[in-house]
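Subject: Re: docking follow-up (S-adenosylmethionine)

Dear J.,

Thanks for your patience while I sorted out the input files. As discussed at Tuesday's group meeting, I've set up the holo structure prediction with S-adenosylmethionine included as the bound ligand rather than trying to dock it afterwards. The sequence and the ligand SMILES I used are pasted below, so you can double-check that they match what you have on your end before we go further.
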Amino acid sequence: MTGFDAAYVHDTAPWDVGRPQAAIVRAAETGLVRGRVLDIGCGTGELSLYLAARGHPVVGVDAEPTAVARARRKATERGLDVEFCVADALDPPELGRFDTVVDSGLFHVFDDPDREHYVEVIRSLLRPGGHALVLCFADTASGGGGQPDVAGHINYTDNCKPSISDCQDRIQAAGATVNKINGIDTMHNINLLISTKVDDVRTDNDNGAAAITGGGLDFGANAPSDEVTLTNGTYYLENIDLDDDEKLILDTSSGDVTLAVEGGIRLEGSGSGGGTIEVQGDGSGNIYLHGEDARYGWSDDLQMEENSGVLTPNDNATQFKLYGPDDLSVSVGAGTSNLAKFVGVLFSPPGRSGSARVDIDGGEVYGGILTGTTTIDSGSIHYDEALRNTQVISRDSKVVRVTYLHVTINRIEASSG
Ligand SMILES: C[S@@+](CC[C@H](N)C(=O)[O-])C[C@H]1O[C@@H](n2cnc3c(N)ncnc32)[C@H](O)[C@@H]1O
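The structure tokens for the complex came back this morning:
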């Protein structure tokens, strides 16, 4: 009996947590798992079954018969169709090619030579354009001494060679990709995430019974109502264009509200008022913004003019998150007398060649900014409201370096107005 089989037989497998690992679930929810899937080293099948329930054709492979028998039993109990087989991942039988290989904890059980071989096997199992998602111990741990790098993920020091980064390079050189699922840490991933999310929502969602039915949200000059409320669910909009005193309410009292927006968001303003997006309730409002502002002649993907607002209860920035691609552009405020106010987290890591930027000119930002360059002409950032550690950054403040979600280093440039 191997160590793995003994752990399954005696029910002592610490990794067998009765559900798929959260990091891979998040990856699947954001569209990183595609088409036909191989769950390599599938254990008792929780991840395979989760992905099958999401509609993927799935093959699960594990070397241990006890684990595979358990996985098959679960599939029958749950009425899910997954092909589970007992096989050595390093010498797999003919399984065909896959769009996605998911590895939840297998890679790091191999020693050096087997890792070399594993890379070759994965490469041979992927279709052109396919990719592998590997959840494994990290190459390094900032905590040192094998401490978890970032809470919520499996991240420990791993000195084996080749490292996951070495393997990633090699698999990429062969035309496929391996994404380390410990964050969204490359331009490729954030752009893929945004376009997949927006496409999926547009395809799958007709906005249900909501007061909006696709198209843009623009009340127009003679609109019957200047306010629309969306309750828990996921919605698609081509753009959002709110004039003075017009309001989009994301009512999260019965669950989170998520919007996928193809184009841009313009919150117009004047001395008397401005357009507003307001989160109500205890949940989160999330916007995935493709941001093709040029189509509308807007200068920015999120354009907030004087007096406009993105607001949450008690300025709780964790309740609003805006995810944009690596070239997202945001302006908060125009003019200095009537401040625009943004409360939330702006997330668009710039990646290798991205040019994400946030311009604050007559506006206040409460929360976190995770983009490329931020300029503050006037106004300020109440940075870290999201992390409950407010620090006000204004034009004369020192440049700060910020790491958040271990994704990106923030660069804030203060320029004179
Ligand atoms: C850490 S466990 C992870 C199991 C499962 N993916 C999960 O997340 O619960 C590693 C798994 O890899 C399997 N395994 C180890 N060596 C293998 C090999 N050469 N081929 C196939 N499976 C293997 C073990 O039996 C075990 O189920």
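A couple of observations from a first look. The chain has seven helices and 26 strands. The pocket of S-adenosylmethionine is lined by residues 4, 15-16, 21, 41-43, 47, 61-64, 67, 88-90, 104-106, 109 (CB under 6 Å).

Let me know if you'd like me to rerun anything.

Best regards,
T.
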